[in-house]
Amino acid sequence: MYATETISLPKSSVFIRCLPAAGPGTRLVNSSLREYEMRMDKNAPFPSKSKSSSQRRTPGRPRSTTETVGRSQLMRITRELLREMPPSQVNRNEVARRAGVDPALIRYYFGNVQALMGEVTMEIWEEISTRTKKATAGLKDPESKIRARVSVLMQTLKENPHFHDLMLEHVLLPTASVNSNVQARYYNARIEEISGFVEEGVEAGIFRRVDPRFLFMSMVGMCQFYYESGVRLKGLLFEGEQVEDVAQRYTKYVADLILSGLRVKQ
After folding, report:
1. Which homologous superfamily is 114-262 in?
2. DSSP string for 191-251
């Protein structure tokens, strides 16, 4: 049982003091009666004790303090990590830490980190084709197109030094998302691209006919090794030289070497 006492306050508030009714067993605490006080603002809604069914959390995208982080941002952050470390060191927690999100967000969008890196690999793969088309769009002679193709490949590998490892794991080796049909589609597109440049040169009488598959492998191999060789080897071979200057000279060298092999011998 409680006795209540209402005290008038400003119009927006009511102050209620609840006092235990006097009687047998009434106890003093800290030399005073226990007081229960509550202030209620008439202008404020009463807080809900429980969430309605529409407010309850349902399975799906995990809560995050950074709501702007989505699929494309996670792929971008993964690519940043892959510039700093090999694919074997990239895991779900590392991506989440760099992005500042819950690791569950990676599972929500991709299922697992392997699927995430598979999509990153395909994105880089497509970029090579897109960049090549843009770089060769205004060029007329096939030699310039070959040079542009080498330059695009070198630039892409500079930005993605572990691309070869990604290709081995996510394209060359079939997975749940990349089967033999997908592999053939991607490689055929690259082969047809290079074959087109060669055929233009053959028709113009400046190139001899070669197997475009060999040309594709040799071009990729020469460009890839430059970035896979690491800083140490390049430092030993080109000590004291500017990194960018060496890269440009090597790009020209690879293109010259390929064109030398393609040209019709007089």
Report:
1. Tetracycline Repressor, domain 2 (1.10.357.10)
2. HHHHHHHHHHHHHHTSB----HHHHHHHHHHHHHHHHHSHHHHHHHHTTTS-HHHHHHHHH
